[in-house]
Amino acid sequence: MKQLIKIAHENHNIEIDIDIFNDPKNNVLLSDSYYSLINGYQRALEIAPPGSERFQPGISLQELDSLFFLESNLSSSIFQTIISIEKRFKTTLQYVISKHMGVLDVSEYLNWNEKFYLSQHHNDVVPIIKKLSQLATGYYYNDNLIQGSPIPEKKDNVSESLKSHRAVGNVPPWILVNDLTFGDSIRWYQSLQPFLKQEVIYLAFPNINFQNRTEHRFSNRMNLEFVKIALKLLRHFRNGIAHGDLINKIEISPSFELHWGHISKLIDLNPIMTRREFDLGVGKNDLLSLYIVIYIMSDYRQFFLLKTQTVSILEMLNTIFNSVDISYVRRTLSMPSKFSERIENLEK
Fold it and tell me: Looking at CB atoms within 10 Å, which of 57, 111, 125, 311 has the fewest?
């Protein structure tokens, strides 16, 4: 432990309290790993040039420990909020599929039909129906969606509830959906014909209400465009947090970035950010972009709880790092300046 503390001080410019160095009981590295504190925040808090691996002056090991503690609590709150959106999405998805496509697994709702599913030549249609059929039946399926041999028990990792429905000869959509990852649920949704996707959006996310002169909200193409991006963004943050990634380590792909033409039609952006700020990345590919999606797609109560905890955590960070340029601390959370004010203004 002492050697790690010495490396943190000499190689990374981390201030060390002599009591922590001499008393193992006070050593923060017993509760948080060296990798989490030093390597986890190094990129966001290092001084120029990039790659110097030396932190901004005045940052202590105890402060990094406090930052990690507060970020862990923020990540937990974000994760639970995304889970609640995921549950509503899955529930609505199975409802729409049951309503239009039936409740019998391989003979109805998992039977490829161009009335309900996109063309079989679409990249993701056959693979997801194949995977869902295997989950529902416990048998392998080939690329022609023909049943093959049984899946070995050691590879058949499904819930007891699903197994019990298999035993009586059918797994309905509301049982199958509980065994799906968020990613598989999204792939299933994306494989559907647009009119089914539109109904899922209409029921699951009533705040997504694009208006124009030629299209009803129930068939507006912008619904599909925005939700496709938003679901990717939610899933990306969900999986990153679930795997223990720090927020500054969650990279945003261009395919996950929000479009001004979408969000400016759903919320008033004037008190949140300017178009120039957006073009520079504010609310486009940062934590604010996630909060915008959560605000649009979640229950008001969920966003209120997340916002309240976020503001409280930022106030604590300002107090802890009062001697450090707070912009560097915000960078660890991929937050733009005035983050509290921006998310407060989302509700206005």
Answer: 57
Which residues does 243 contact at the CB level (< 8 Å), separation at least 6? none
Exposed e or buried b for every residue in 125-158, given b needs 16+ CB within 10 A?
A: bbebbbebbbbbbbebbeeeeeeeeebeeeeeeb
Q: Give the count of alpha carbons within 13 A of 330, CB side only.
A: 16
Q: Between the CA of residue 288 and those of 73, 183, 307, what are the distances in Å? A: 17, 22, 11
Asked whether the beta carbons of 307 and 343 are under 8 A apart, the reply is: yes
Distance CA 45, CA 162 (A): 47
pLDDT of residue 48: 72
List phi, psi (to 5°) of 147.
Answer: -70, 140
> Cβ distance 322 to 233 under 8 Å?
no
Q: What percent of the chain lies above the pLDDT cut of 70?
A: 90
Contacts of 130 (CB under 8 A, 6+ apart): 141, 142, 143, 145
Output the pLDDT for position 330. 87
Query: How far are the Cα atoms of 227, 254, 295 from residue 239, in angstroms, in the given order?
Result: 18, 17, 19
pLDDT score of 17 more than 70: no
What pLDDT is attached to residue 25?
A: 52
- DSSP assigned state of 15: B
Mean pLDDT value across residues 102-128: 93
Cα–Cα distance between 248 and 268 in angstroms, integer? Answer: 27
Name the nearest CA neighbour of 348 among 304, 312, 313.
304
Give the pTM.
0.90
Cα 215-290-260 angle, rounded to 5 deg = 45
pLDDT category of residue 322 using cuts at 50, 70 and 90: confident
